Every structure is written in structure tokens, then in C-alpha cells.
Amino acid sequence: MIFLIVVRLAVRLFCLWGFIMTSTNSIYRDLRSAATQVVLHKSPHMVKNRLVVLMTVVLILFLPVFVLAGTVELPETGQTTCYNSSGSVIACPGTGQDGDIQAGVPWPSPRFTAGTGTGADCVTDNLTGLMWQRMQT
User: Which residues of the chain carry a pLDDT beneath 50?
Assistant: First the structure.
């Protein structure tokens, strides 16, 4: 469970880092421009207002990354056995493999539901919500 939390956090940080890197150039230009205005003795009030606006925009851009970042409920893999590096079956306790941890959302029962009536040609996967066309034999 801790591993999943760490992975989710790493993915969020990776996405945030990409967003920061794409936004850095324009922010750097604006800060450099504001600093140049200070050096050229332009109105300090105008420079202060521009910096306040810039920091507000940065806050508005980054706040949704933290507020709207939700969690994803991944399903169980269904793996119940564990293997060593040569491919032989081993005892699972303490290995940290999927067969040992079995983390995730349990599969629904039944996993698949055959359609009826007008949807008789469809099979629904109750875990993912996907619908599949039933092949006629």
C-alpha cells in the first residue's frame, strides 16, 4: 500500500515538474523585466503591482495541481503466486510481489455480465466498465 502511495506521489511530482519547466521561461522573463524596471528607476509602485499580479497568476496556475489531484483506485492484478528471478514458483510471504501484497480494489463478482434484450450482443466488464461485442459462433 505504501508503494502505491509513493508511486502516485512520484507521478504527481513528475507532472508538476513538467508543468514548472514549461512555465519557467515566461516567469523568468517577467521577473527579469521587473528587475530591469527597478534598475532603470521606474515607478516602484508599478513594479510592485506587476510582481503582485505575477505571483497571483503563478498561485492560480499551481493551486489546481494540488487541489484537484485525485487518487486512482487501481484494481487487483489477480496474481496469487510469486516467482524468483529464474522463473520458479516460490513462497510469497515477504517478497513484496503482487502475489504477496494483493493490493488494489477487489474484482466485482461477477466480473463479466452478458447483455440481454437489445444489448444481447454485448458483454460488460464490471471492473472497468468497458463493453465488448460478443462474437457469434
Answer: none
What is the predicted pLDDT for the residue at 31?
61
Q: How far is CA 125 from CA 89, 105, 112, 115, 119, in A?
A: 30, 15, 5, 11, 14
Distance of alpha carbon 97 from alpha carbon 79, whole angstroms: 9
DSSP per-residue string spanning 52-111: HHHHHHHHHHHHHHHHS-----PBP-----EE-TTS-EE--TTS-SHHHH--SBPPPSSS
- Alpha carbon dihedral 79, 82, 83, 89, in 10-degree steps, equals -110
**Residue whose entry in the numeric block shows the C-alpha cell 499580479:** 53
Q: What is the pLDDT of residues 89-105, one digit of tens each?
A: 999 999 999 989 988 88
Instruction: Please state the separation of Cα 28 from the chain's center in Å.
Output: 27
SS3 content of the chain, % helix, strand, coil (to 5): 50, 10, 40
Identify the residue whose cell numbers are 502475489. 99
pTM, two decimal places: 0.39
Cβ within 8 Å of residue 101, ≥6 positions away: 1, 3
> Cβ contacts of residue 91 below 8 Å, gap of 6+?
82
